[in-house]
Amino acid sequence: MIRSITITACLLAMFSCQETKKKEVEPPKEMTEAEVLTKAKEIHSNVMTLDTHCDINVDNFTDTVNYTQNLASQVNLPKMQEGGLDVPWFVVYTGQGELNEEGYKAAYENAMSKFDAIHKLCEEIAPDQIQLATTSQEARDIWKSGKKVAMIGIENGYPVGTDVSNVEKFYNLGGRYMSLAHNGHSQLSDSNTGEADDVWLHNGLSDLGKEVIAEMNRVGMMIDVSHPSKEAMRQMIEMSETPIIASHSSARALCNHSRNLDDEQLQWMQDNGGVVQTVAFKSYLNTEKNDAYQAEANQVIKNIADSLGVTWLDRSAARALPEAERKAYYETYTNVLLPAQKKKLAERTDLPPAVDVTDFIDHIDYLVEKIGIDHVGISSDFDGGGGVEGWSDASETMNVTIELVRRGYTQEEIEQLWSGNLLRVLDEVQAYAAEQKS
Q: Residues with Cβ < 8 Å from 373, sequence gap 6 or more?
C-alpha cells in the first residue's frame, strides 16, 4: 500500500493532510503468514463487515427454500456465518424496460416483491438470526446482539415510475440508497451504457429525476451513482445537499470500464464527502486478465452443457429469455453447470491467472491514495455477477481482511473500509432529512 507523504509536506499542508488522512505511516513490519492470519482473525471479529451490494432472487425467500439453508447463492446465512459477513445490503434490483405505464407498473411490482422477500426473511423466516436495520445505530445494536444485519438498497429508480411519492414509500419499506438508472436510460437519468454509442436521453438527469433527487434528500435516502452516466453524476452532486455514494464501482484508472469512476469523478466524490464502495467484479477490476481466464472457463462450461444436452447462454442471452424459461435456465446453470465447472477448473493446472482478491485490494489501495481512507468502502455484487478468486462468496469474506492486513492497513482503517465510511454518509444524509423536517 502506497501512502507516501513526507512529514515535512504534511506540516506544510496540514489541513489538507488531515482532511484526507493521507498521513505518513511506518511501513508494516514483516509478518509471517501465521501472524497475518492471527491478526486478521482478531480484526475481522472486532469490526462490523458491511457489503453494500448483494442481489437477491425472490425464489430463495420462501418457506421451503430460503437463506437459512446453504443454497447455491453466494450469500445466505450459513455462508455469512462461515465468512463473517455481518451486514449484506440486499438489493431491490429492476432491469430497465419500456418507459411507459405498463413498464412502470411491472417494475413497481418487481420492486415490491423484493421488498416483501427481504421483510419475510427478517420477520418470519429467520428473525432469530437476522434483523432489518434502517439506521447506523440499529445496525450496530443488532450486530452487537450477535445477529446478522439486513439493509436495503435500490438498484434502478425505474420502479418509481412517474410518481415521486414512491421514493418515500420505498424509504418507509427500508430502502436507504437508490440509483436512478441501471443498464439503459431510465425516465430519471441517463445510464453509463450510453458511452457505447454516445446516445443520450436526457443529457444527464430528466426534470423528473431532479425532483427525485430533491425527494431523496428530503426523506433521507442516499443517492447512488454507480450506474448513471458521468454527466448525470455531476448534476446529482451539484443538486444534492448531502454526500452521495457509489454502491459498487471501482477505479477507472486501473480498469477502463464505464462502470468505474475516473479520476475526475473520484475528486468529485472526495469534495462531496461521499464514499466509493469498491466492487469485487472481475471485469471491472482487470478486464484483460478476466477475459483470458473467462475464455477458458466458458469453454469448460460449454462442454459440460453440451454433454448434458443444455444450450449454454451468456448473461445477456439468458436475461432475454421469457420469465419461465429464464428461471428454468438459471436453476440448471446455478445448481448443475456451475458446480460441475468449478470441479473441472480445480483439476486444471494450465489456466491463465484468475482475477483475485489481490486485484480487488489494488483498487482499494488506489482509491485510498487518490481520495483518502475516509471515502472508500467495500462491495461484492454477489449474486449479480460479482465475486473474485478468494472472495467468491460470503463464506470467504475474511480473505479480504487478510489481504488488507497483509498490506499494512490498521484495525481503525479496516473498520472504516468495511463499514465506518458508508455508515457515516448514511448518518449525514439522515441527519439532513431530520433537520429539514424539524
A: 20, 21, 22, 413, 416, 417, 421
